[in-house]
User: Fold this.
Amino acid sequence: MSDTENGAPEETSATPGTGGSAAVPAPSPDPSSTPAPASASAPASVPAPASDDEAGKADKAAAVAALAEAVRAVGRPGGGDRGGSRGGGGAAGTTSAAGSAAAPRASATEAPTDRPAPGSAATAAAGPVTDEQRDQALRDTAEVLAAGGAPADLAPAAVAAFGDSAAEQLRRDPWAVLTLPAVRPEHADGFARGLLGPEAGPGDPRRAQALVGWLLEQAALRGHSALEIGEVTAGLDRLGVPDSAAAVQAAVLDGRAMPFQEELTGAEAHTTGADDEEDEPPTRTLLTLERLALAEESLADGLVRLMSTFVPGEDPADEDTGGDTGGEQAAAGPSEGSSEEPSGDSSNDSSDGEDEGALADEEVPAAAEAPAGTADTGQSPEEFPEPPLAPGPTAWEEAAAAAPSSSATALIRATAESALVLHTGGEAARAEPAALLTAATGLGLRAWAATWTDQGRTAFAALTGAPGTAPVVTLAELLAGVAGPGRSPDGSLALDVLIVLDAPLLDVELAATLLESLADGTRLVLSGDPGQLWSAGPGRFFADLLTAKVCPAVASRTPDFGPIGELVSGIGIGELQPVDAPDKEVVILTAKDGGEAVHRAIQLLTDSIPRALGIPAEQVVLLTPGHGGTAGTRALNAAAKARLNPGPGRFGGFDPGDRVADSPAPGHTRLARVVDGDATGLHLEYTDGARRTVPPAEAARLRHGWALTVHQAVGRRWPGAVVVLPDDAAAALTRQWVYTAFGRGERHLSVVHAAGPALPQAVTERPASPRTTRLRAVLAENAARAY
Assistant:
């Protein structure tokens, strides 16, 4: 597939570090210079026998280890605390600037210190920018871009990133253009040569440092919140940087990357060969972007804050007998019922977890109806109700005993005793957090649930038995404040219990935003299916929490029934077995190539499924790994439109009646239908009944919506789903992807299979695309310090 399923812009599908050859050739070197070897420690490139190859690998490993040690010794100017001592040891930010003596090469390539950071306050120091100043900045920037051979269309993005001095910044550092959307190294190299001429060589320190940041940004698009230092230097080598070690050190000094050292534990430690108990614990050095480092630190701090400030309720004193059960519980201390000690008895068979703030800014229709009891704005501090008294153990136990299933009982009991609880299970298991929500509201607590999509909100509210009044909102609505419990005087969400469904879809930045909005001692229940796809953004928040084992984890014992549930459950444990489907709940079709796969998928959508099963085409979705390729969303949507709603596309490629997918943020998609269009934009009606006009400037985020990628489909299900596996999809398939895709159908699943052995191999051999994160280490250190 030309566009992989990772939430990244399409242009970033081929990136260094993902395997294969380098994505971009090195630019023409400066005629006055001679190319340096790819590795500072490697000898000149001469064919060598196998033993020399092994020696070269050892030399490379030694060079990376020396670089890691040098980076850890690099101090930040001013000795601030931005660097990382968390996660197992000191890092650059905790050492003084005098430590840079261990890295003498850094000074030779140090970048100018007056580089303004994109979006920083320095760019707005002169005060508000007038329309005239902005127009002038756009003209100046477009002129610089044109002089370097870059599209003038990048001017608005450059001004948004660098402020009204964007033109000056790009002239001073042409490789700063790499921070703009869809710009790749070969584009930046061409732009630099257009401005600088022969001076724009591959060893230019500005190029090297910009590439460090670009590699980390690309890694974030693939889900990593950090990269091992060796991966960064290898990526720089592939991009033709003569001295990758010096580039990394200079990037750390300049603040483009933050270094952290972590101790390896478990299987990761064993792979290093450090099995001797007397050996020093093996470590690794990670590089990360500042925003992601701060997000993981904030997230860990927020989780520990909730757990350490949690105080369970007490039973009222028995006035008739003079008993004081509440006093006894208070005397016992918080360790009796708090989450300071993880509850091992409720973890059952939970998975080990191998499984953004942009969402908060998503436009939510102002006319969206909030459930009864919603508190929005307009209240003075005096009008905020006092939080209810916390129910005691007896009340919680009575609620648990009344739960509809043993798994729901276990979840209610865990929530009674802990501030942070994890809940894992499939679609049928969503009834358990619904029972918890009902129990918590019945106990007089301010309890709310948040789902990923509007469809998930409707379906979950129905499970509570009170769909019209259930306190359920989408996460976007909750964080934007247009629905939900409202805010307390201190700005935190006015609730006592928050249940978050689809928790694996939260990236570290969005999760940090959510934690910052919760008051001390709030009960937080994170529920999700650990077998489904992780977030489109960086991190693996839910999976890291499961593996960290810092809180109770309740694994549901409620299975997903029916042929589709049986098939998906088998995939979850690495088995792809045929299932008995007497009513054609599951149908597998083969195709010889992508073209035939498209033909068969459209036939199923428009004829076979509606005719044989009575499911209309409007309730069937086509799912595929990516947007491009022979059977990506573009090809499928074009064929579906030609059959179901042919037209000239007179409104920016769309016609009234078209199904569209509106993606305001990576990993979050709202489905709609085109009502009409005019000069003001495209008029859409969303699946929840809300209407909105998308102006022409935002129309680029719209796609036709008959066919979606699986990341676009997470958080919702359809009566019928057709999963298309083209012949060029092998690289995108994992067990996690197949599990998620096959689970999108409620009544019927068709699979159009042209991937050959890649499908069973993905299910049995490739659980998930690996992600490098720091959250587990940061959380472990914070928890140890707090307790």
